[in-house]
Amino acid sequence: MEQTTKPPNEANRLRSLERLLPVSHFPRSLFQKAVEMTCKLTGFSMAAVSIVEENVQRFVTSIGISECEFDRENSVCAKAILSAQPTLIHDLSADTRYQNLTFTRATKMKAYAGIPLRTHNGEAIGMLCALDPRAQLLPQHLVLAFSSIAGMLMGALEERLHLITPEASREDDSFLMAVFDSLTDVVLTVDASGAVSSANHTVEKLFGIDRLQIVGQPITRFLPNLFSGGTSSLHNPYATSNLLAILETMEMTARKETGELITVDVRAGRLLRRGTRTFTLMVRDASERKRIEKMKDEFIATISHELRTPLTVLRGSLALFDADLPKAEVKELLRVAQEHMDRLVRLVNDILEIERLETGHIQLQPQFESVEKLVEGVLLLLRPLATARGVELTAQHAVANVSVWCDKDRIVQTLTNLIANAISFAPADTRVCVSTVLTTEASLRFQIEDKGPGISPENIGKLFQRFSQLGNRTARTGGGVGLGLAIARTIVELHGGRIGVESSLGEGSNFWFELPGPLNFS
Fold first, then answer.
1. What kind and span of H or E run contains 106?
2. Which of 173 and 456 is assigned the larger pLDDT?
3. Under a CB-based contact definition with an 8 Å cutoff, are residues 123 and 117 in contact?
4. Are 33 and 20 in contact (CB under 8 A)?
5. For strand 391-397 and strand 430-438, is the pairing parallel, antiparallel, or unpaired?
6. How far is it, in rounded angstroms, from Cα 431 to Cα 391?
7. What's phi and psi for 391, nearest 5 deg?
């Protein structure tokens, strides 16, 4: 067991710890600052500076952790110092390496993120760690900033012992500030009067005001409801201690410099030092989160509807089999049941298809393919459908004997979807024309033109989104669920191409997509 928690350079590590240990007894403000910054950065509810001695691991400074000392062999931090990389654990209780340790059982912590505290010679004397009772994994984009906090802490400790120069320490501080300026979230500090005392560069993008201009202004000018009380984290009783209170994210309305109102997520912390109150805020634009939530809600609503209809028909058809029905009616019930079962299968296949495409689980297998053969093959397949609807299919090629570099199966799938849509929406006794032309950018454009009802300008931008069905464009015979065009868009974009539509209400539509090639003329 000893070998699992003690590194090969244990003797040198303990000597370094012995030199630094006296220093660790008095720079409480330095350690406190490090753990406060760790909580703010990671969003974890607890943080600590731990020192791994010969037989024990103890927390010299912590936020939210009551127990301060653990047997080394039963410590997560003692194991973590063995790694050259940051230690990121989603759930300690589910990880066989840590689930039986005294630390895990005693603290009931799940999430753990730790950065080794290394001397300038590379010995790890302990860990700067963030912990949380909720299972989660620290995002990779925060690891660099987290590491810089640990580096700043060790730099300050060694500078006190003159092990590194003040110039090197100032470089670490400058690097840390640069890291915070590179964060995509706004970071603000607010003094006891409610005025902004500092801000990172991201404030300029979110609020439209220079970071220097926002300093000194009341924070309520930009976050009007911040001190409204109720469930605000700035009024939570936990924040009255001498620790930084990192509470759950709040959603609120923010006002930009122009007066525009936006929705933001705010994470607030409160610190009391020698009677002086300071707030730290991390502010994130919530528009992307709201957009994803809306897409999720629409997805669930659409799937629920698309599943409910065929399942209801299938249930009704099966229930009627108990009745004494004529053979002809039984055959019709079976036909209806089969039709709706096919619809369910298409729905599931389409969902799986677009997920595989967008996650890269399907790799293209391109080669040169004859453009004329691609188009004629699809027209041959769809001609019975067109004939049944009284629609004529034609093809025109501006350049003969041209081949395009593409995945044949995927482009056939795209053409089939677009041409079948055009047939479904084209009135009887009209024509659907498929044509190919060269663009000025030397790409090959496929065009599918119909004389259907057309699409309004405000709806064109929605066509290639998942589950998009607009107005009378949903009246297709095949019972589509609005995934076909999203799949077509993904396939074309995987080829490096573009897809779009030109349409006017009452005049029909011209769907097109372009493939960049290369092209082969023969």
1. helix 102-107
2. 456
3. no
4. no
5. parallel
6. 6
7. -115, 135
Token digits of residue 42: 């990671």
3-state helix, strand, coil in the chain (%, to 5): 45, 25, 30
What the block records as the tokens of 474 is: 């949903």
pTM of the model: 0.43
* Each residue's pLDDT tens digit, 363-416: 778 899 999 999 999 999 888 888 989 999 999 998 888 899 998 888 998 998
Residue carrying structure tokens 């509807």: 305
Q: Which tokens in the block code for residue 433? A: 């024309």
Let me know the angle formed at the C-alpha of 338 by 332 and 341, rounded to the nearest 5 degrees: 145
Both ends of the chain: CA-CA distance in Å?
Answer: 72
Among 134, 73, 67, residue whose Cα is nearest residue 107: 67
Q: What is the CA radius of gyration of the chain?
A: 32
Question: Is the confidence at residue 115, as pLDDT, over 90?
Answer: yes
Residues 6+ apart with CB under 8 A from 514: 439, 441, 443, 444, 445, 446, 492, 497, 498, 499
Length of the chain: 522
Question: How far apart, in whole angstroms, are the C-alpha atoms of residue 445 and residue 353?
Answer: 24
**If you search the block for the tokens 């399907």, which residue do you land on?**
362
Distance (Å, whole) CA 313 – CA 296: 26
